[in-house]
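User: My instructor asked us to take a sequence, write out its structure as tokens, and then describe one feature of it. I'm not sure where to start. Here is the sequence I was given:
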Amino acid sequence: MVAGMPSIDPKDLWSSVERVDTEPMTLPRFDHDEALAAGTPFTPLIQVWMARRVQNPVPEWDDFDFADFRGWHSELIVSIFPDDEADPEFRIIGEGWRILQQHNGVGLRFSQVLPRLYGFQFREHFREIRDLGKVGWAAGRSPHIGRGQIPFQAIELPFRRDGNRVAGLLHGVVLDD
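Assistant: Let's start with the prediction itself. The structure tokens for your sequence are:
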């Protein structure tokens, strides 16, 4: 910190990479049985997620193994809901996401990285996934400055941690050519 200069929280800087003219995204939420039939490129991830559900509608995070995600590791994010807000906090970010976002957002919430898009669409999207255990899917163009022409798709698969409530999300991403 330089004497006489105001202190800037580095977390506030990330939101400056979001385009002001962010386009709306397609954001359907699926019931569990609809997720595989939706025709997304995430069939392998959905199959692993469904296999780990055992007797519960939403699987427990500890039922997954690192090897379950072979071939997907760089395209994954693991996030949690640390409080009552339906605003996931990123805990693990794969290289594919880092390239798309152009930064490392570990420890940040979705609303800190993309505040306009969160307020405009994703607050309700994440709330429904968290509260109802739905599978989320997002499709559109990157909302990041300088990356707006990159079409992508993302899946949000809920998981539990020691209880019945959704505690976090496994996000997968693919870039569309």
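For the description part of your assignment, you could build on this observation: Confidence is low (pLDDT under 50) at residues 5-16. Try explaining in your own words what that tells you about the chain.
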